[in-house]
Amino acid sequence: MLRIHFTARDIARIRFAPRPAPLQELHAALAAAVNRQGGPLLAPWRGRVLRSLPATAAPLADLVPAGRPPLFLDVLGESLSDSFEQIRVTGSGFVRSELERVYGGLPAPAWIRGLHASDGSGWRTLYRAQQAAYEAVLAPVWSVVQQRHREEFTRYALTVAEHGVAGTLARLAPDSRLDDGVWAWPGAATAGATEIRDIRLAGRGLVLLPTFHHPAGPLLQDSPGRPVVLTYPAAGPSALPPTAGRPDVDAEALAAVLGRTRLDALRLLAEPHTTTSLARALDVSNATASAHAAALRSAGMTTTTRTGRSVTHRRTALGTLVAGV
């Protein structure tokens, strides 16, 4: 469970990132590929991502020796070069302490030792690795990511206008609630946390950043002296175009995995449906439709939002990628 504690000042400082952050989207894509997130149905995409990475990008793996990236990488530059400059001006003490944290006494490669010593060659190695990974993984689809971000930004603005901040946060994170200044997200499994994680904003505010390459979530960036950034899986269509990221899915094979009715439900949920309208379209009972929606939601393929006594189901980016339509 993730619990974010707001002060009154923090509520006033919640904002939505106006543009996608290329370095954070790259981190999300690499994490999803390396950690096998999305299950076996995303295996073709993961394989393509990992095969596309040139040797120049290999040093990035040295930054996560135990799956815990250093916090000085958490910046929101609007271009890769801007992101790198923000990292580069990070205080040397913070860089050293974070490298010591993630290595925890393990022997470090020479270039990591260079970063620790503020050596210029270490920083050049990092920038070349980031640039190479971006060109291989994100550059081919970046214009699509930008378009999807604009759509998500508009959806967020309209939801705030209609439902207010508390209602909007609950819609971004299914089953979450904002009560008494605490946003509780029961199903969240944040990086580095397996049980309850409490984050106290203490006036720093919160930035909401959608990701289009990370089916699980959230990714939380909590760096000293910076606003907390919550990167969450966008609910809209996948940012990956058919030629770059969508696996070729055979309908019969997919039906054998999901079941024919559940596959039909996933494809119907390209448009929002209440449980009743989904049941009517599938020609099943409300209870059966609800069970199918719950199974798809548990696999990260759909989301469910509640308004009063009514619930609405819709497909996630992962669900769109799997459905193939």
From TrEMBL:
Keywords: DNA-binding, Transcription, Transcription regulation. SMART domains: HTH_ARSR (SM00418). GO terms for molecular function: DNA binding; DNA-binding transcription factor activity. InterPro entries: HTH_ArsR_DNA-bd_dom (IPR001845), Metal_resp_trans_reg (IPR051011), WH-like_DNA-bd_sf (IPR036388), WH_DNA-bd_sf (IPR036390). Residues 252-323 form the HTH arsR-type domain. The keyword Secreted does not apply. This is Helix-turn-helix domain-containing protein. It comes from Streptomyces xanthii.
